[in-house]
Design a protein that fits this description.
Layout: H1 8-14, H2 17-33, E1 39-43, E2 46-51, E3 68-75, E4 80-84, H3 85-89, H4 91-104, E5 110-111, E6 115-118, H5 126-134, H6 138-151
Antiparallel strand pairs: 1-2, 2-3, 3-4, 4-6, 5-6
């Protein structure tokens, strides 16, 4: 579900009341753990964390006017989602997350290529999401991104 918002604050104000607190907490956890250099923006109608053009002038290969996306969080119709491009691009990071997840949450992991879906908002493993956010610097993400682009 997309919300008309120009800032993360507007986005959180627009989502259903019962999700505001958990989205604020999720945002705070990511901001506290994300390595220096990433920027928080509105990206694809979600709260996004990107490598800004100042650090990576090439931008996103699909649309170079956009900064390089890294993570997003969103309140969707039936779940809260955490999108992490690094997990999609790095099998070791994906394997780490999948292995750690059961230590924090007893419900089955609901995950796509880069999207983790939380239907029960009280099961979001904030500590694990914070650790995931901390695992890659902008420089490491750019290197991994470029290596994956060259493969295609």
């Amino acid at each position: 579900m997309q919300y008309k918002a120009n800032s993360p604050e507007e986005y959180i104000n627009a989502i259903p009341e019962e999700r505001k607190e958990v989205m604020q907490t999720l945002r705070k956890v990511i901001l506290e753990n994300l390595p220096d250099g990433f920027s928080e923006v509105m990206s694809y109608g979600m709260i996004g964390y990107v490598v800004p053009h100042e650090l990576y002038p090439n931008g996103y290969h699909c649309d170079p006017k956009l900064p390089l996306p890294f993570m997003n969080i969103a309140s969707q119709k039936n779940f809260i989602a955490v999108y992490h491009s690094g997990m999609y691009a790095d099998k070791n990071l994906m394997d780490w997350f999948v292995g750690e997840y059961p230590k924090y949450v007893k419900t089955r992991l609901d995950m796509g290529k880069s999207c983790v879906r939380f239907k029960k908002i009280d099961t979001i493993p904030m500590e694990l999401i914070g650790e995931l956010a901390s695992k890659m610097t902008p420089k490491q993400w750019i290197e991994l991104y470029e290596a994956n682009i060259k493969k295609k």
